[in-house]
Amino acid sequence: MLPLPPPQLSRRALLGGAAAAAVAGLTGCASQRSASRLSFLVNHTNQEATLFQQVVDEWLQTRPELSVAVQNIANGAQFYTRLRTVSVTRDLPDIWYARTLDTAFNVANEWQLPLTDRIAADPDVDVSDMWPAQVRQMSIGDQQYSLPYDFSCYAIYYNKSMFDEVGIARPDDENWTWPDLFDLAGAFTRIQGRRQDRWGFYFSLGSWLFDGIFRANGGALFDDEGRRCLVGSEQNIETMRQLFAQLANGNAAQPQTLGAAVDPFVSGLVAMSVQGSWATAQTRDQVGDRFEWDLLKLPRGSTGRREVATAGGAWGISVDSANPDAAFALIKYLSAREQLNTFISEPLRGIPGRASSAADEVEMTRGQDLPPRNFAILSEQFLDDAYEVTYPPFWAEYETIWNNRSTALNAGAAPEDILPQIERDTNAASARYFAAERSGS
Amino acid sequence: MTATQTPHPVAPNAPTTADERRVPRRRTAARQEARTGLLWLQAWLVGFALFTAFPLGFSLYLAFTDWNGRGTPGFVGLQNFITLFTADPLFWQSLEVTGVFALIYLPLSLLLGFSMAMLMNQKLRGVTVFRTIYYLPSVLSGVAVAVLWQFVFNTDYGLVNWLLSLFGLGPVNWLQDSAWVIPAIVIMQLWGVGSSVIVYLGGLQGIPSELYEVARVDGAGFWSTLRTVTLPMMSPVIFFQLVLGIIATVQIFTQAYIMTGGGPNYGSYFYSLNIYNQAFTNLRLGYSSAMSWVLFVIILLITLLVFRTARLWVYQPNERK
Fold this sequence. Notes:
The complex is a heterodimer of chains A (441) and B (321). Chain A is α+β, with helices and mostly antiparallel strands and 441 residues long. Chain A is 45% helix and 15% strand. Chain A has 18 helices and 12 strands. Chain A has helices spanning 11-29, 46-60, 76-88, 103-108, 116-121, 132-137, 160-166, 178-185, 209-216, 234-248, 257-261, 280-287, 324-334, 337-345, 355-368, 376-384, 395-410, 415-439; strands at 37-42, 67-72, 95-99, 139-140, 143-144, 146-159, 190-192, 195-203, 270-276, 293-296, 310-317, 351-352. In chain A, strands 1, 2, 3, 6, 7, 8, 9, 10, 11 and 12 form a 10-stranded mixed β-sheet that branches. In chain A, α14 packs across α15 and α17 packs antiparallel against α18. The termini of chain A are far apart. Chain B is mainly α and 321 residues long. A two-stranded antiparallel sheet of chain B has the order 1-2. In chain B, α3 (89-120) runs parallel beside α7, α3 (89-120) crosses α8 and α3 (89-120) runs antiparallel to α10. At the A-B interface, α1, α3, α11, α17 and α18 of A face α1 and α12 of B.
């Protein structure tokens, strides 16, 4: 084999080549944002993502000049990591699933475009059909930043078959209280051999669930301005003491420990479960015909009130969008009654972000004779018991703190130790946020 | 004009032998070879510059700024470091958690890995099957392993508590109790010790058999052979495993991220998880960069310390006394 001649390469050519390759690399990494192509990021199941794609395709039929790239990241943590990463490269998707819990954070970090002027100028966007509590959560000051997708609250899922087996009638959920639920739960506990295999109820340590429970018992998570965390108050500590006493006496199943492996309600291990409205479809699929189940309203607290915490999903438009007009037209379409019926009401998946669509859903449950049969109580809770609040900009930090510290309660840590720690950590985050706001950075 | 085309003038007192005359030509050839090498390295160099050197330099710059990813980073001098050391209890908590984990896990992993390698080094029938079985966990995805162990450690239905119940023990709240969460993660990590077993095994099989024969002739038993032959000859491999182990252990992340989120009560809030949360939950990119550089300095100092002690315990056959 003949030896190859040595390549003739000067230093200048070498450096030139390297520079050209670097520029090519950087160009390749640069954003490819275009006004004719909208990016649409969602955080849903594959079934929902398929529906989004279908509805977007319908919308595009009258807009041949546009295209939409739908991307679904089903895992919540990965979805948020993606958002935070692309925010740094100023490449936020034109439209994304902006939870109402995040509105203040998104606005504080200059991610979301205000929509109030567009909404006011568009007669097709009927704000009065949206849930008032959700409108409040989608707004900062006098600006609304999103259009609604779904709206959620918690309710009590109960196993009708187990109630029948034990011989207990459906409770009067219009007037029942948390102590009533605790008493009722005691009737369902069962110990086989050395192990307990049935509990009265199950609750998770959902971060926003407890705002409602605390309020119903005279406490709250935050002050009215959303600047100061109040979770360590005496009222909240007492509420948690009563709740966690139910773990100690066996009335309640261990939160999260049990839930990490199995869904205790779906598995028939508990008679009642404090669960979100979004879980109706999956519960129906997973329970099948193994037992009958339905919904009860949340119990009233020591104040006599039933304060129902709510949070929702919505469509936000990015400040990085090259075509906010088209993006607004698309989210308006996605948020319309007919589309919400397609996404949510027809498959009976949670509660849509419009009262008219929710009414359609209740009608559909009657027609289909599927559980939960008293779907209407979710809407009733929104209208009668949901309070209005804007979640604070440090919500994500609060949630990390809450999730981290509150799990210690499951292992027997005292609420009077844990809740003040959560309050202290959260207020440190709050102070940082509002100090930055004061300094204008 | 390239160097190969340039005639080299011969000075009056230039070397006259054939070998000496070839030296400049050799130098030219070496330069050509170097340039060719650089040409082939270009793709890697560009990748290194774009994806390693630039991010490193940028993160060092960010460590002195306050930045949420939008707008211009605001220069804050040493404020991030001052806050870290004086006003952030979670910084100290995550350092403590990481340090405790490293102090428990590292010696155990070195001991267990080495012991298992000794067992796998026996000339027994079917030993290769055991080697494969013990190595298998190392090829599994860290996330999948973490999810699997969540089930294993489940308080009510987990395998570990079931085993304990056979002896009348438990149940233990492995992942819910801040006193047990680190031991739980240590147990899980030790399950994947097979990768280090392979390295130890390679080292053990490289020890000259003559040394064992000499020891046997001298009447050495198992323990004295281990002490005077195996351990000294294996000390470079143990050193290598120790250094890599320190670097990997201090950066532990996935297990806590998947299994506990850092809880309960920050009991498994490892330093890397803290960095991740500061950056990707709280959008404190400057602050998290400062934390990353502190971690780099910590790893560097520990590694240097280990290198300094190496002379005392690592056998170096080529070292002049």
